Automatic annotation (TrEMBL):
InterPro entries: Fe3_Rdtase_TM_dom, Ferric/Cupric_Reductase, FNR_nucleotide-bd. Residues 1-17 form the signal peptide. It is a multi-pass membrane protein. This is Ferric oxidoreductase domain-containing protein. GO terms for biological process: copper ion import; intracellular iron ion homeostasis; iron ion transport. Keywords: Ion transport, Membrane, Signal, Transmembrane, Transmembrane helix, Transport. One of its GO terms (molecular function) is ferric-chelate reductase activity. It comes from the Eukaryota.
Length: 689
């Protein structure tokens, strides 16, 4: 096998400098960036790039770590003893023998290429790929005109190029194969990465559009009951796996997650070739070549998944506007895509570590900036997964959030400098990080605009009992949910809250002149519940947002000891699905989750029923002005009998559930079974960190 000399020297310089210099490209390899186009022209240039030139002297050599290399002889017997360095770019630009030899080679080998493309390439790349390289002293046409007939001498790599020569066919073939293979491999990496990114964007939109197709409504309900609504594994939430992996996906979510995992596995392992003819300079043998391509592939796919996971986690995710998927679904997908991306990044580093040890490059490269930044990104990625487990996230969300932000910055900053120090801006790998930064920046910009729209407000805090507080913010209105920033403690933190009402009630009496009508106990399948009277109510009111929240461990504990706080309001977020097509609406809520179902109760034109399980009577009493218009049944300190409630419904009906995870899981299971027999719609309102 013929040893390709120019790439060997290039690799030597890369090992010493740790950087592949070249002209900046824009886009991705194969999609805006032409890596080696035309291949024939690059092969001609590389075939003569290592010949000593008459202008060559010690001062004209490139200071690229190639001086003094003793290459020995090639397998074809070509004498390489005289090659001690590569000519400088200035020398190549001024050397008539070099330019005319390359021009004649292009004339012979690039038959069919447009002359204007050759001229364009010639001006930029015939001397070299560095932005600082001087332009050639002759144009392609002028150089070719200096060769009246075919040269009769073939120059070997070790010879001084002092006249126009024919290209060595074995060397040209070796260069051509090497360049073509390298380019095609890189294009394939980018193509597969685009498949992952586009799949993650297009498939959610495509599946959401299916709801507009004229499927029989009964079939759609059965399909949802079989594949969309049920949790993948019912015992999951109470198992040790849940403490590490997180919430169980529904079957529909699990199908998409499985697709993403299998797609990444397939594209990581698919379509690798070995090229013993002319490609041996890159790796020692075929298996090493495959491992090198695998490492590069994993790095590119990881970058594509980085873009996808940042998109999924964004509050202002464009997919939320294009689909009917909930934010909690995208947050769940964010976690699974993050696991895929981190695993790919770790494997990328480990495979290259193995290869660099085998190639005896580790000692030289491990002190270089690109290597250190790659290590920083990989270590941060390795830590972010174990430090994001639900056990930590739920017990101390603020600690989790701080670690998550710092680790994410290190991952993306490390990845950026890893690429820039290694390749500068040549091959567009940083384009994937541009996408990451653009998605992140767009989300933060929209968040800022949402905050500025409301300005700084005052939150009035009322303690309901040991478990709950009420927050009123005057002068703002909205529906859905918002994120609140309390400015005198941990101002960087923010938490989601459903808007219970856009009217703050200062005082009030019922229209019959009596105080609040006492609740009465009723029997609901053997359990006592409290049924609120339905009467009109007159109030002194003003506009504002009303929130209820349960006091948990962490930052919200401090609210119990405050009466007023300056607050920023980011929002509003969320849309409420139109359920008017269902004659009956059943809302099931637990604790302050009841505020999430209020918009559905208020908007539904048919029969709407609220079943509410509360920990304390104080919370029920505090919400009487808001729940007074509803048909409602409440149990305090006990669990709702969900089986009885849901199975007693007649005809088509919709179910909205918001509350503790166990309540939502049980509702899912019951509704999934009912949906196989009758037309039922399930909407699960949940907030996921």
């Amino acid at each position: 096998m013929y040893l390709s000399l120019a790439p060997v020297l290039w690799l030597a310089s890369l090992a010493s400098a740790g950087r592949d210099t070249g002209r900046p490209g824009y886009g991705l390899v194969g999609y805006g960036i032409e890596m080696y186009i035309p291949v024939c022209a690059y092969a001609c240039q590389y075939s003569f790039a290592t010949n000593s030139l008459e202008c060559t002297d010690e001062a004209s050599f490139d200071n690229s770590g190639m001086g003094g290399m003793h290459m020995g002889s090639s397998a074809d017997g070509i004498d390489l003893q005289n090659v001690s360095a590569m000519p400088s770019s200035t020398c190549r630009a001024e050397s008539e023998p070099f330019l005319t030899s390359v021009a004649w080679c292009i004339h012979e080998k690039c038959d069919g290429e447009l002359i204007w493309k050759i001229e364009k390439w010639w001006q930029s790349y015939v001397v070299g790929n560095s932005p600082s390289d001087p332009p050639p002293s002759l144009s392609y046409g002028a150089a070719l005109a200096l060769v009246p007939s075919q040269p009769n001498i073939t120059c070997s790599s070790g010879q001084i190029l002092n006249q126009t020569c024919l290209v060595n066919e074995a060397l040209y073939h070796s260069e051509y194969v090497s360049i073509d293979v390298n380019q095609n491999v890189e294009i394939q990496h980018e193509r597969f990465a685009l498949v992952i990114l586009l799949s993650g964007v297009v498939i959610p939109v495509g599946f959401s559009l299916l709801r507009f197709l004229p499927f029989p409504k009964r079939w759609a309900s059965a399909l949802n009951g079989r594949f969309i609504y049920p949790s993948l594994l019912r015992p999951w939430r109470d198992s040790p796996v849940a403490a590490v992996v997180g919430d169980p996906p529904t079957r529909g979510q699990a199908l998409f997650i499985a697709y993403l995992i299998l797609l990444n596995v397939f594209l990581s392992a698919f379509k690798y070739d070995t090229h013993p003819d002319g490609f041996g300079y890159w790796w020692n043998d075929g298996p090493d070549e495959i491992m090198g391509d695998l490492a590069n592939r994993l790095g590119v796919l990881s970058f594509a998944n980085f873009a996808l996971l940042v998109l999924y986690s964004s509050r202002n995710n464009v997919l939320l506007w294009l689909t009917n998927w909930q934010h909690s679904t995208f947050v769940l997908l964010h976690r699974w895509v993050a696991r895929i991306a981190v695993l790919q990044a770790i494997l990328h580093s480990l495979v290259f570590l193995r290869d660099w040890i085998q190639e005896d490059r580790l000692e030289a490269d491990q002190v270089l900036p690109y290597w250190w930044w790659g290590c920083i990104a990989t270590i941060a990625a390795s830590l972010i997964l174990p430090l994001s487990i639900p056990l930590l996230r739920q017990r101390s969300y603020e600690v989790f959030l701080g670690i998550h932000i710092v680790a994410s910055i290190l991952i993306f900053m490390g990845s950026w400098y890893h690429i820039i120090f290694r390749y500068q801006h040549q091959w567009g790998y940083e384009t994937w990080l541009y996408v990451v930064f653009a998605v992140w920046g767009f989300d933060r910009l929209v968040r800022l605009l949402r905050i500025l729209r409301n300005g700084v407000r005052t939150a009035n805090i009322t303690v309901i009992d040991n478990d709950y507080v009420k927050i009123d913010v005057k002068g703002v209105v909205g529906a859905g949910h918002v994120y609140l920033y309390f400015l005198d403690w941990r101002f960087w933190e923010n938490h989601p809250f459903s808007i219970a009402s856009s009217v703050i009630q200062q005082s009030g009496t019922y229209s019959n002149g009596k105080d609040v009508t006492p609740a009465k106990d009723v029997e609901l399948d053997g359990e006592k519940s409290t049924q609120m009277a339905v009467r009109s109510f007159d109030h002194n009111v003003e506009t504002g947002m009303v929130f209820y929240l349960r006091i948990l461990e962490g930052g919200t504990k401090a609210l119990r000891y405050k009466t007023q706080l300056p607050v920023l309001i980011e929002g509003t977020y969320g849309t409420h699905e139109d359920l008017s097509d269902y004659p009956t609406l059943v809302c099931i809520a637990g604790g302050v989750g009841v505020t999430s179902v209020f918009p559905y109760m208020r908007a539904h034109p048919g029969n709407a029923y609220l079943y509410w399980g509360s920990r304390t009577q104080s919370l029920v009493d505090s919400m009487k002005p808001l729940t007074q218009p509803f048909n409602m049944e409440v149990v305090v300190g006990r669990r709702l009998n969900l089986q009885s409630i849901l199975k007693s419904q007649h005809g088509d009906f919709a179910v909205v559930v918001s509350g503790p995870p166990s309540m939502m899981d049980e509702t899912r299971e019951i509704v999934s079974k009912i949906a196989l027999k009758k037309r039922v719609k399930l909407v699960a309102e949940s907030f996921t960190y």
